[in-house]
């Protein structure tokens, strides 16, 4: 059975996008990037030998990549079949981005992840969902594709998501030296800064959707 095509445009050609591709990359970096997953991944794989850690990292990357591609093919098409207005999609996307940003800020006050049992491989499914690829990351991908307005931007969005997953893979492969050289504190500070940037982008989406509603 043939796979469905990528989502058809719901935004007219030539429309001004609220988020640039650079801002889309930033959202993906925050939502499915290594800043949020490096700590849990390091804790879950702390008891593994280096070779086993690399195997786990590659498996997590492969499953995450397949999930992103599947969501790109199926999720946005399903969403479009419901005939949801682009303004509503944009408002929903902004709301999701805002809630995720607030979650990132609050996550700094949670207890750290427990270390893995030496010699015991961590559950791959948990390292994929939600550590590397949380549900809100998939939701963001689907909404952005549904609002893409054309195949060129759709492919760019999918490519940016895949590029962030490649960054995840590199960080997972070198997680131990990275944490030795950098430590957790700079990553927490960076996460807080990125969280504030995401709040601003989310509010930008929400306000734009409200203006669309008031304008017609």
UniProtKB/TrEMBL annotation:
Pfam families recorded: MarC
Listed under GO cellular component are: plasma membrane
Q: Topology relative to the membrane, per the entry?
A: Multi-pass membrane protein
Signal peptide range = none
Does the keyword Transmembrane helix feature in the UniProt annotation?
yes
Q: Which UniProt keywords apply?
A: Cell membrane, Membrane, Transmembrane, Transmembrane helix
Localization: Cell membrane
Bilayer-crossing residues are: 24-44, 56-80, 87-107, 127-147, 154-175, 187-210
Spell out the family assignment given in the record's similarity comment: Belongs to the UPF0056 (MarC) family.
- Name-wise, this protein is UPF0056 membrane protein
- Which species? Stenotrophomonas panacihumi
